[in-house]
Amino acid sequence: MQQYQTILFDLDGTLTDSAPGILNSVRYACRKLQLEMPQEATLRRFLGPPLPSSFRDYLHLNEADTARAVNAFREYYPDKGIFENEVYPGIPELLRDLKAAGKGMVMATSKPELFARRIMEHFSLDQYFDAICGATIDETRTDKGDVIAYALQTAGIASTEGVVMVGDREHDVKGAARNGLPCIGVVYGYGSAEELRTAGAVTLADTVQDLHTLLLG
Fold first, then answer.
1. What does the longest C-alpha to C-alpha distance in the chain come to?
2. Catalytic hit among 10, 17, 143, 146
3. How far is 60 from 146, CA to CA, in rounded Å?
4. Which partner for 132 in 58, 107, 142, 181 could form a disulfide, CB atoms 3.0-4.6 Å apart?
């Protein structure tokens, strides 16, 4: 079994179940812009990808309406949606054990970094991470490959040997590949096993316990 010394973690769908807050924020944006409310299956496609591309791709908004939708989302999310969120059972223990084993941990999320930090501090998970890296509010850095590159640079990781990404969507797998990293796909999150395999995940973890075994043996 491959031994990884540094693990990059996605946030939504990997460490926390943030679906309620994200979906409620999308619903709020749709009501504010007087858009037809999407079906549940469409709403759930917002879980994982960068927010602007989700509004463009899934609700077929133009650039101006996409900007308005993102702004409306962020009216609800920072005060309410951000904490409509739960840590997956077993994640605190996993992070504790990784830290005790001397592993390096870095967050690489498409969520704006400001929000990611607030969430990690709220759940007292920030203590385990060497760096918490995310997207920019002004959307100059939202692509997952760009976020991972930024995370590697911020954490001072010059060599990708012994480094792995852990995430739940194809964007995590493809973003990792762009930076020369393997990706472990977590099926307990928002992506399917088929999505993760097709994207090129090196292996899958059906549960947090499976992930614990893959990372620590």
1. 52
2. 10
3. 24
4. 107
